[in-house]
Amino acid sequence: MNLHKLLLARASAGKPLRVGLIGAGKFGSMFLAQARRTPGLHLLGVADLDPARGRAALMQVGWPAEQIAARSPGDAAQHGDTWVGDDAATLIAHPALDVVVDATGHPAAGIRHALAAFANGKHIVMVNVEADALAGPLLAEKARAAGVVYSLAYGDQPALIAEQVDWARACGFDVVAAGKGTKYLPAYHASTPETVWQHYGLTAEQAKQGGMNPQMFNSFLDGTKSAIEMAAVANATGLTPAADGLHFPPCGVDDLPRVLRPREEGGQLDHKGQVEVISSLERDGRPVFRDLRWGVYVVFEAPSDYVQRCFAEYGLVTDPSGRYSALYKPYHLIGLELGISVASAGLRREATGAPTGFRGDVVATAKRDLKNGEMLDGEGGFTVWGRLLPATESLRIGGLPIGLAHRVKLRRPVPAGQCLTWNDVAVDEADPAFQFRREMERRFGGARAAAQ
């Protein structure tokens, strides 16, 4: 509430909130489409490894060429236009910048950009949920120490779920479950970039014409992206995964309170306070009635007989007992909604969701029997998918995080379906992302992590 009013006040005072975007892909482009329409917000710069792509993204969503001709971030700050280049460090360090948005999708880059933002006193909105799943709890802690905001990205599902959890708790409800919908069948865990399009009903040629990246789309299908996003939700809300990860129960919106209640009460939850992803497909492939494929939900419990009667009086859909109900949002608008996080961080110094602990982790899991000497290809690839585990279990087994399972070589065979560990691969221990992740494990995992 009132973010638009605060933005108007900044516009009226001639002191717009200055934002730098890193990564001009689809999410970033959708933000750019709305940024030029948002009063009180000045896009100071766009940094992309391919500046031509950054300029093309701006032009595609309606920015005039003369508005993106600044020669430097300083020039852009002076004249109120936008700089485009490949030097993210220079953009982050510019004194006029208020908020950094990392939309790269690359976990190591996200950690690097976040640390640079903290060092320069800038808030950061982390669209890059891969970086958050890899090391978000430590990034959030370092942001607090630097006196800046580290935030999940509104428009992406984890922040929207965190908002719903906050709503329920602020109303005095206990949260039973929260999560999102997706298209899921158990066979999808073995999907590769060569098989992905058949599950989307596309040919490889159609996907190529649409500029679709098969490995990225495969990460949505094989369960990795769902695991990454639910790890972010667990770490931000205090909800926890089931002991063996996500179950993906088929469920439509009208059945949320019935399906997402504890098993001993007729539902499919391991425990109250669980993160879970529901499938838009029945296990035989039939579509779920009134599915939530694109949306998010929270299931909450009536704390008393009186509130249970209120649920009935006001027409809430409940489970058969009348105690459990749900709130859902059928869509998420990706970068079109990202300005909420930018304004919240820059004007209120509030995150739209941020890690408060290390509760969920995403561990690389073999898609097939892997041989000694094979090179792993990371999220959405041919070799591994990401399984959500409680962080305590990941630390117990020494699990290899999916964010670091790219371009590393196996030291021994790993059978299909088995989680990989640090001992299974030859890692570059000098890599800054590896070192940061291990620091997080020591910080949040105690003696167990330190001994590994």
Count of separate structural domains: 3
End-to-end C-alpha gap: 46 Å
User: Quick one: how many beta strands?
Assistant: 15
Shape descriptor reads globular
**Which CATH architecture of the largest domain is right?**
3-Layer(aba) Sandwich
Low-confidence stretches: none
| Share of helical residues | 25-40%
Strand coverage percent? 15-25%
Oligomer: single chain
Mean pLDDT, all residues: 95
Major sheet summary line: 6 strands, parallel
Strand order of the largest sheet: 3-2-1-4-5-6
| Helical stretch tally | 17
CATH class of the largest domain: Alpha Beta
CATH superfamily of the largest domain: NAD(P)-binding Rossmann-like Domain
CATH topology title of the largest domain: Rossmann fold
Structural class by sheet pairing and helices:
alpha/beta
Summarize the structure.
This protein has helices at residues 3-12, 26-35, 51-60, 73-79, 88-93, 107-119, 129-146, 157-170, 196-200, 204-209, 214-221, 224-237, 256-259, 305-313, 339-348, 391-397, 432-451; strands at residues 17-22, 41-47, 83-85, 99-102, 123-126, 150-152, 174-182, 274-279, 296-301, 324-329, 360-366, 375-377, 384-390, 406-410, 425-426.
Features:
15 strands, 6-stranded parallel sheet, alpha/beta, 4-stranded mixed sheet, Rossmann fold
